[in-house]
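Researcher: Final request for today, and then I'll write up notes for the group meeting. The sequence and the SMILES for magnesium ion follow.
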Amino acid sequence: MSITVENVEKNFGSVQALKPTNLEIGSGEFISLVGPSGCGKTTLLRTIAGLELPDDGKLTLIDRVVFSKPDGIDVPAENRGVGMVFQDFALWPHLTVFENVAFGLRARKDTDRLKERVQWALSRVQLAGYDDRYPKQLSGGQQQRVSFARAIVTEPKIILLDEPLSALDAVLREGLRLMLRSLANELGLTAVYVTHDQHEAMSISDRIVVMRDGVMLQRGIPEEVYNKPNQLFIAEFVGKTNFLPESNGTAPGELKMTRPERLTVQRQSKQDLEFTGVVEMVSYVGDRYEAHLDVEGKKWVVYFEERPDEGDRVTLYLAPKFVHTIKEETE
Ligand SMILES: Nc1ncnc2c1ncn2[C@@H]1O[C@H](COP(=O)(O)OP(=O)(O)O)[C@@H](O)[C@H]1O
Ligand SMILES: [Mg+2]
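Model: Predicted protein-magnesium ion complex:
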């Protein structure tokens, strides 16, 4: 294991930001922590980094215990061997790109082959030749790439990223997401990526962990969490959810759901379930039409290749294997 979190918890006064939490992350794994604002993502990340002191538990990074409440171990952040990237870039405005990237190496008096290593890091993020610029002379995306370079220049095995793309516009985010993922692969990094954006989490990660109120609710590969959410909150958080009418054999305490892209207007097989809905609203989103339908009193989202008309009655088909059952929460 690259990262092992055992019963780690963190309170801020009466706020239980992180309830006792366990998590194992394998070497080279790219994992995302996803969940609504305030659910404890940053707290967990900062705890791993050593920027936040947990109230209890044990943390192991690559076979080295860096925090243990019972054993009184607390390795300072700068000696944990992790690279960190923040949402607001956190660059020094009065230092050049080169000096921003070199900063951590100089602080540690680790200046052997300094120039070569800084230039290696800058070239990995496609910023070769930008050494002498100041942060304010760069675009937001370039500034964030400088902060990636700064995180990798010390050649850490683990990189922790807290909403690194949230301050950037959508097109830039997608490009940087791909860059980050391939950088992590090429360098063999173990990555923990915090985001409140479930699409970003699913597209970049080997595995995602969904959090709420300081608790990890579900963890798994993106396909599993998306297609088989273990509770209503997750179903609705990670994607658009269509609940089947009760007439489809839903037992008390159960919800049956599917995802919009599973519904078709043509029958694919004899076993397909059949529904009739009325189109209430249609929006064009470029690659398809997204329609809101009323299906036996349930509000569904369905995708169409051709524009349906509002008021149309349409028949929809669904393969039984795409029906997922959730046990209703009892809280
Ligand atoms: N330094 C702090 N002092 C007091 N409360 C904090 C502090 N940091 C975080 N919290 C609280 O802990 C909870 C989790 O916060 P955080 O980990 O930042 O959530 P997220 O990153 O998922 O948005 C929130 O209720 C937040 O208000
Ligand atoms: Mg946060």
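Model: The mean pLDDT is 95. Helices lie at 41-49, 97-107, 114-124, 140-152, 170-187, 198-204, 222-227, 232-238.
Researcher: Thanks, that's everything.
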